């Protein structure tokens, strides 16, 4: 089977955290539009399986192992291995379960910020200049509804995602004039295999939001494909909610 569409033919997309969860759906959706996808994460077994799935569906993909929390040498190594990247999706991130601020140690704080903020910051800094030099490119950051609102005992995770939204707007200002668009998707709860972990936390919310349900990974991936492609040619610095209406009500 060949890719379903050719909207992203000839482009290379790097999707962080594409060894599991939402990132797998994003990698597959970009490949289905013709992009060659670089799958990355720490787990080679799961990464190789995603690559095999994409190839067996007629798409192009390769795996590069990297730990985005390991600092700038590791991130530079990933960027070098990736080569010319046209689409960067900063998806990898870690969720922190609700915890009183006073209980959060410096180590936990730094671990979360390393994965959710420092990693995307350094990787974008490593890849965007080459996009600027070519005069085109797209970066899509995965933020969260939690970056748009406050949350009881959620200061850590919510603040990392607010930082992702803020970076999206500053990078739009920095890179947009050179032809590189930077946008974000802000998902609400997503029905991934790990959704059960947050089920108690999100149940009261789902009961009152317009759609009354979580998003599927494919619904969030569709928004990423839109922002990465030419249909979004004049969209810069947007934070697109895919949250069943949570942010609106
Ligand atoms: N799930 C939700 O309901 C939800 C809602 C809103 C926003 N989001 C956001 O969506 C994104 C994906 O979430 P998810 O639910 O799909 O998470 P997930 O199932 O836990 O998957 C996280 C992915 O990130 C990778 N990853 C984590 N730490 C990493 C590190 N230090 N270095 C490299 N890769 C790392 C993991 O790969 P390895 O294990 O192979 O390293 C995995 O592929 C995150 O940014 C999250 O904040 C999720």
UniProtKB/TrEMBL annotation:
PROSITE patterns: ADH_SHORT. It is found in: Secreted, Cell wall. Its main location: secreted. GO terms for molecular function: 3-oxoacyl-[acyl-carrier-protein] reductase (NADPH) activity. Keywords: Cell wall, Oxidoreductase, Secreted. NCBIfam families: PRK07231.1. This is 3-oxoacyl-[acyl-carrier-protein] reductase MabA.
């Amino acid at each position: 089977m060949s890719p379903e569409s050719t909207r992203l033919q000839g482009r290379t997309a790097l999707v962080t955290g594409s060894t599991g969860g939402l990132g797998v759906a994003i990698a597959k959706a970009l490949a289905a539009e013709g992009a060659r996808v670089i799958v990355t994460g720490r787990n080679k077994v799961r990464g190789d399986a995603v690559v095999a799935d994409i190839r067996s569906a007629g798409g192009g993909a390769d795996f590069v192992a990297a730990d985005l929390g390991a600092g700038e040498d590791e991130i530079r190594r990933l960027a070098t291995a990736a080569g010319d990247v046209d689409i960067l999706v900063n998806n990898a991130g870690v969720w922190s379960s609700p915890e009183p601020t006073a209980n959060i140690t410096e180590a936990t704080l730094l671990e979360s910020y390393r994965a959710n903020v420092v990693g995307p910051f350094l990787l974008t800094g490593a890849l965007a200049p080459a996009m600027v030099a070519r005069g085109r490119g797209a970066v899509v950051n995965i933020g969260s509804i939690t970056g748009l609102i406050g949350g009881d005992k959620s200061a850590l995770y919510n603040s990392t995602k607010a930082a992702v939204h803020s970076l999206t707007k500053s990078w739009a200002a920095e890179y947009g004039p050179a032809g590189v668009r930077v946008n974000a998707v802000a998902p609400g709860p997503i029905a991934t295999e790990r959704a059960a972990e947050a089920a108690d936390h999100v149940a009261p919310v789902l009961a009152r939001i317009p759609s009354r349900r979580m998003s599927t990974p494919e619904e969030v991936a569709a928004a990423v494909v839109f922002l990465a492609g030419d249909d979004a040619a004049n969209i810069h610095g947007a934070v697109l909610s895919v949250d069943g209406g949570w942010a609106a009500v």
